[in-house]
Amino acid sequence: MDALAGLLDGPRARGAFLLRMVMEPPWSVRIEDRAPLCLMSMTEGEAWIVPADDTEPVLLRPGDLAIARGPEPYTVANRPGTRPQTRIGPGGICTTLRGEPLAQSMHLGVRTWGNAPDGEASMLVGTYLLDGEISRRLLNALPALVLLPGDDRGSPLLTLLDREIARDEPGQSVVLDRLLDLLLIDALRTWFSRPGAEAPAWYRALGDPVVGQAVRLLQNEPAHPWTVAALADRTGVSRAGLARRFTELVGEPPMAYLTGWRLAVAADLLRETDATVEAVARKVGYSQAFAFSTAFKRVRGVGPQEYRNGRGLPDRQQDLPMA
Hints:
single chain; seven-stranded mixed beta sheet; six-stranded mixed beta sheet; 12 helices; 13 strands; about 20% strand
């Protein structure tokens, strides 16, 4: 597994919230859904993304792609100073600022929502609803807002998503989930390759001849009964030297990194395979399902079986955006 693949292996949309938003000025939408990650791209017109803190608003033009990291709120509007008229809460619930429902009045068709069918601004929106769909390591690697100008990107994925988002075909939600994953991976690959991009510490550490080898060993063999001594032996350095340098470059000790990686791999196995919890535990290096379940719940907040069953996963809402 190369360094970038290790970072980008996380996106796994499952019933993601996808829609086309069509708006006529003046308009302003306050986003308070607490979603871990949202992708936005204009197909027509322009929009401003206004963070909740004091950072400068960002202008989004056709072809640009913005990635907003939650859970902090932000505003999307035709102008930075336009007062919000609409609020998007957890699960994509759309209301006025006073809490009055707007789902029916702003429903414009399959996965299409807005205040005017022929509005001058049209935006594609794709939202990951749960933390488990995006690896914590990836989220921690991102700033609150990433903007990729259209000139920097030649990907046809936005065009494909624009074509597919309003279709109502069998299995369409799965098609859109995978398109969103590919779009995110493509965008992040572009962003991390730009000069001055601040990759996470563990990603940069992969360039170190010792620590990089250690990280790859842990990633490629998570089920191995690793100890710091065994890892040091495989990398040809002392145990104390490896522990010190690994913690310095990666930001956490080797065994803490291994635990996080094992649980990330386990989360994917639970969602994407029919393997039993006990089998998943063995595949990621736990000899007992109980120990694995305890560690998983401590990190994810729910047990493995609850996670597999999608506990807390909002209902799919493709047919009635902003339900």
